[in-house]
Amino acid sequence: MTAEGAVASPVQELLDELHARVQTVTDGEVATYIPALGKADPALFGLALATQDGHVYSAGDAATPFTVQSVSKPFVYALALHDRGLNAVLERVGVEPTGEGFDAIRLEPDTGRPLNPMVNAGAIVTASLVTGDDYGQRFQRIIDGLSAFAGRELRLDHGVLASEERTGDHNRALGYLLRNAGALEGDVDEAVGVYFRQCSVVVTARDLAVMAVTLAAGGVNPVTGERVVGADTCEHVLAVMATSGTYDFAGEWLLRAGLPAKSGVSGGLMAALPSQLGIGVYSPPLDRRGTSVRAIAACQELSSRFGLHLMRPVNRTTPVLHRFLRGDALGSQRTRRHAEREILRREARAIAVCELQGDLGFAAADVAVRAVSDDLAGVRWLVLDLHRVPRTEPVAVELLDSFAAELRGLGVTTVVSTEPGRTPLAAAETAFGTLDEALEWCEDALIAAACAAAPDGRLDLDAAVPLSEQDLLRDLPADMLDVLTPLLAERSLEPGQALFEPGAALDETLYFVVSGSLALQRLDGDAPEPLRLASMGPGTAVTGLTVADDRGAYRVVAEEPTVCRVLPAAAVKALDDDHPQVVEALHWAMARSLAARLRRADAQNQALIGSVP
Ligand code: GLU
Q1: More exposed terminus of the chain, fewer Cβ within 10 Å: N or C?
Q2: Active-site amino acid positions
């Protein structure tokens, strides 16, 4: 059997099945106090679920239009917060649950503020805080804002608006009370008129799901990609929805469904789970507290089936510490002369490599910092590798940064390896695009420090490496070196100049690096930059074999001004007649060097395999 085209999503199947079951619930009454709403068909039931990446699942009457009513309130609150800032809005509208219905008449005794923006009194004041020179402009801003949340142009239902205006005396009375208490400024009819209009905007259950997920996603509509409001604003709106979104049912709602939500008298409800999804429901029959009966049933079941409760602990499945190794187990891909290798063999434990993985928030960064600081004995260089960290919260950057600053005080240098252009730590010494380059930098620093600490030692890093100290030649007796020396030519390379281009003709010419540095690069078809695989320092040797492969994708280039001594293949051939023992010694030296490198590569592989839990 093959999967041709799209395979039915299990989420869609679950949603359809749930919809069919909840459809059979027939409790509740359609609201009639706004006469136009009373005409709604009680059998209508639409359900939609929008994901953080912008996919919308829907079932039943998810495309049926209805007026948004109170479900508009959180979005208009978001616009007011965006336009005025949290403190200015808080001065005018509180955030305490009322424990009363949507039309509660209670205002805060000493300030006259309405208790929260989810009840009508609070919503009337909130609408008056949206930017605009007059109420016409304010309503335009509101309908544009609601449209941006929904990702399509919304319009008004003039029939419902007229019906609400005719029967809206309770809300007008609230307006006068608010003005009398000093909570509302200007013309009451105009202020209440904007509120009526925002309630009469037409949406669908699908729209509500998209609007909800825009809040859940921190203010960017994932379907259109448009940023509507800031992430802080969404945080504030969701908090108020959680405590007051379903009026005097808010406590039990949060307990059972565990989702910040807002209900409306036409039977709409939207719920949002931060960073995950938005739900939109439409079903006109309401319970005695004004919330859609089927919406409650559907959301509670979705929440328990999908594990959506906000208070549910989220367990991290992968440990934040991917690997934590010392420099003796994990070395860079730089080929170094014997004396440098000796220093690293003795002291490489002073380098520690910490590879982190997964998103870094407060808890993960804290765990990582504690795990690393518990195991830093003798460490002087710390590489923090963030290639497996897709996202860092500001708090994680702050924690890692102050950790790096503290380490600096203790004489430990922190370097970061991460994607180019992303340097999250100010206290890090430097940042590299690859872990290998970061490691190589630490090894260089360690070797330089070791040489500086023992200046009378044999290793002068700045001096050209003579033939007698070249890795391949250091075990050769002096008379053999004397035979080789006159055969060697010198070749200088500018930075960027290639020693071997891809597909170079294979010969056995030997290049001894006297000073500078060579890099082995791989050129991958579509990659903009060649990949740096390894490097070769003074005292090491390279031949055309390094780049010999079928694909012809490798090259060797100088990374800095570099000088090589060259032993041409023809010269080696000629030697074979007069000094076969020199050629044999050379071949043995090459074989030994290769064997030693294989042993090192094998040890490194073992350390890497053993280090992953
Ligand atoms: N427009 C309605 C009113 O003010 C909204 C109430 C609601 O949806 O809860 O009466």
Answers
A1: N
A2: 70, 73, 195, 247, 265
Report how far ligand 1's centroid is from the alpha carbon of 112 (Å).
21
Is the Cβ atom of 69 under 6 angstroms away from ligand 1?
Answer: yes
- The predicted pLDDT at position 316 comes to 67
Q: What are 108-153's pLDDT values in tens digits? A: 888 889 999 999 999 999 999 999 999 999 999 999 999 999 999 9
Domains of the chain from N-terminus onward: 10-306 (3.40.710.10), 321-459 (3.30.750.24), 467-603 (2.60.120.10)
Mean pLDDT of the chain: 91
For ligand 1, atom 4: residue with the closest CA:
120
pLDDT of residue 140: 97
* Angle, CA 258 vertex, CA 253 and CA 263 arms, to 5°: 45
Tell me the C-alpha distance between 450 and 60, whole Å.
Answer: 73
425 CA from centroid of ligand 1 (Å): 50
The CA distance from 382 to 416, in Å, is: 8
Q: Using H for helix, E for strand and C for coil, what is the string for 48-99?
A: EEEECCCCEEEEECCCCCEECHHHHHHHHHHHHHHHHCHHHHHHHCCCCCCC
Q: Is the CB of 36 under 6 A from ligand 1?
A: no
Question: CA 201: distance to chain centroid?
Answer: 35
